[in-house]
Amino acid sequence: MKSNERVTLLELNGLVRDVIAIGLPGPYWVEAELSECRESRGHCYMELIQRDDRAATPVARASAKCWASKWVLIRPYFERVTGQQLRAGMKVLLQVSPQFHEAYGFSWIVSDIDPNYTLGDQARRRREIISQLKQEGVFDLQRDLQLPRFCLRIAVISSQSAAGYGDFAAQLADSPFAFQTQLFPAVMQGEQVEQSVISALELIFARSEEGGARSEEGGARSEEGGARCEGGFDCVVIIRGGGATSDMSGFDTLALAENVANFPLPVITGIGHDRDESIIDMVAHTRVKTPTAAAALLIDHAQSVSDALDDMQRRLATRAQQRLSLLASRLSLLQSALPRLFTVVKTRQEARIDTLYRRLLALIGQKVVAHRGRLDTFGQRLPLIVQRRLTTEHHRLELTAEKLKMLDPALLLSRGYSITLKDGRAVRDPQQLQQGDLIETRLEKGTIKSTVI
């Protein structure tokens, strides 16, 4: 074709189609990440990207299509092998062939998908998450917890409409034990699993921290008649029933695993089947197959505690009966031996009293003799002591009388002295008197009354 020859757009696109068909015979196996995946009229439309490992930004983009005739075979096989649906963010290995359509442009046509490649990528991510959990030291934290002996207050994380939740609640309600369950609704499939379950765990933790405060009126309650928990919780049960195994990927995230591993209450999971073990199953306290198995675990635990209590009650009754029998035997022996023992004790006490009585009489006799001798001695010495004391006191009286004579005022008056009195009291200083005072002067042979001038 000459460079100046004109062609229509349809002819030009036809040339491009032919060049691609000849130059890219295909098919090719291509590694890519899905940035978008949607179905329409049975066909699957995908947007493929490749990211820069250092900057995590797309360095290549392309559109891909899988026609319904292929998709109807590829999809169930992929989901059966991987256990999940194709979704955005998943790494895939696609078999593609180039196609250029004159009206719709270029796209890659998907003819096959290798699920083992995706499984390998999922396994790698799971290994990385598990390794990080172990490095953080939280992988086995739940194993260190113990189910409370009376594990009856159950916080349940599940979809409210899930059949598995209904079976779980009904099984507990039919048991002979007073289980109290409270549902914390969460999304259990799809991309919202992680955040929804984490929010439920946070709400359970907040309720436990509040000391089991009552839930708001009209809150979630077991539809099968389970009583609402009025206090804190004894454990958490995460159950999922009725969903496809392809929806398990939401339970394989680092954030959710960290929240479960660090939760202060034992966490029991019943979200899958034998061959579907998620990461939160690995870090949980106990992992069971199904919601009904979780209910059976709780009932068996309660039954084991009840059996242990019954056994302890029987053992206590047996021990008490044995103790009573032993005490009754000892009491019977004491009762039969009591008269003889009383006679022996009585004889011993009487002999002891006699001995004490004789010793008391002897001591009294000794004391009487000793005090009698002292009394005789005092009797002989007493007259001499009394006479000596009387003589001494008589002499003291004579001395005192002589002193009194020497101090007698009458003696002084007989010598020419006088005494001046005012109001019956002796005047010793003229300053005590004032003009007009009446004074009395006593002499040897009379009294003179005067007025002070």
Describe the SSE topology:
Layout: H1 9-23, E1 28-40, E2 43-51, E3 58-66, H2 68-82, E4 91-101, E5 105-113, H3 115-136, E6 153-158, H4 163-173, E7 180-185, H5 193-209, E8 235-239, H6 254-261, E9 267-270, H7 279-283, E10 286-287, H8 291-406, H9 409-414, E11 419-422, E12 425-426, E13 438-443, E14 446-451
Helix pairs in contact: 2-3, 4-8, 5-6
Task: Provide an overview of this structure.
The chain is of the alpha/beta class. It folds into three domains: 9-121, OB fold (Dihydrolipoamide Acetyltransferase, E2P) (Beta Barrel), CATH 2.40.50.140; 137-305, 3-Layer(aba) Sandwich (Rossmann fold); 410-451, no CATH class. It contains nine helices and 14 strands. The chain has helices at 9-23, 68-82, 115-136, 163-173, 193-209, 254-261, 279-283, 291-406, 409-414, and strands spanning 28-40, 43-51, 58-66, 91-101, 105-113, 153-158, 180-185, 235-239, 267-270, 286-287, 419-422, 425-426, 438-443, 446-451. The strands form three sheets. A five-stranded mixed β-barrel has the order 1-2-3-5-4. The protein has a five-stranded parallel sheet with strand order 7-6-8-9-10. The longest helix has 116 residues, at 291-406. The N and C termini lie far apart (179 Å). 23% of the residues are buried. Residues 212-228 have low confidence and may be disordered.
